[in-house]
Amino acid sequence: MKNSVCAIIAAGGSSRRMGGFDKLFASLGGKPTLARVLDAFQACGRVDRIVVVVSQDNLTKAQELVSGKEWPKVSEVIVGGERRQDSVANGLAKLNDCEWVVIHDGARPLVTPGLIERGLEAARESGAAVAAVPVKDTIKLADPKGFVLGTPPRGNLWQVQTPQIFRYDILAAAYRNLTEDVTDDAALVEKAGFKVKLYAGDERNIKITTPNDLAVAEALL
């Protein structure tokens, strides 16, 4: 049976800036960070299937985490690659029976079912949509020596988050044509010539990168 909506949880990072903590399994409100991500996708009625992509070091721990009955939508836990895009490609290879693919960072534990659903609605317009919030600070463009080259209009700048939602055929085509490093999947889809729609993200949907981020997420939770 064809799954309409499948999710890839990209959780293959190394937690280098966490000061010895593994951000995926750090306690957040009494639950591992990764568990909170899975809670949101399990609770989203539009999501049919979840593939979790982790590092080799975290494979056993992640498999143990999902071994119970709490997240029946999780079909597989697999090992990612050296780069984020390699990890997503590994996950995408497992999802050839899906119409839509939702990609989310395993280190964004405050995602909500509503945020996922809004993205799926937004993606219907062009086949690709990403969560984003307006940039609040003034941004400077600088040269390698630190001298300012210009100040882009703040009204045109957005801070991109995940979830990022794509029609399967669009994302698969973009990955087939992959020739360079990208920082997110939207950039890859853009480079492949497809239009990407921004939709309203959530200021609370922060990414856990440092111990301070974990403290902020705890306060927000």
Describe this entry's structure for a reader.
- This protein has 221 residues and is α/β, with parallel strands linked by helices.
- It has one domain (3-128, 162-220): Spore Coat Polysaccharide Biosynthesis Protein SpsA, Chain A.
- It has seven helices and eleven strands.
- The strands form three sheets. Strands 5-4-1-6-10-7-11 form a seven-stranded mixed beta sheet, sandwiched between helices.
- Helix 5 crosses helix 6 (185-191).
Which properties best describe this structure?
single chain; 221 residues; alpha/beta; Spore Coat Polysaccharide Biosynthesis Protein SpsA, Chain A; two-stranded antiparallel sheet; 29% helix; 27% strand; globular
Name the strands of the widest sheet in spatial order.
5-4-1-6-10-7-11
Structural class: alpha/beta
- Terminal residue distance: 37 Å
The percentage of residues in β strands lies in 25-35%
What is the number of beta strands? 11
CATH-assigned fold name: Spore Coat Polysaccharide Biosynthesis Protein SpsA, Chain A
CATH superfamily: Spore Coat Polysaccharide Biosynthesis Protein SpsA, Chain A
Helix content percent band = 25-40%
| CATH architectural grouping | Alpha-Beta Complex
Average pLDDT rating: 92
Low-confidence stretches: none
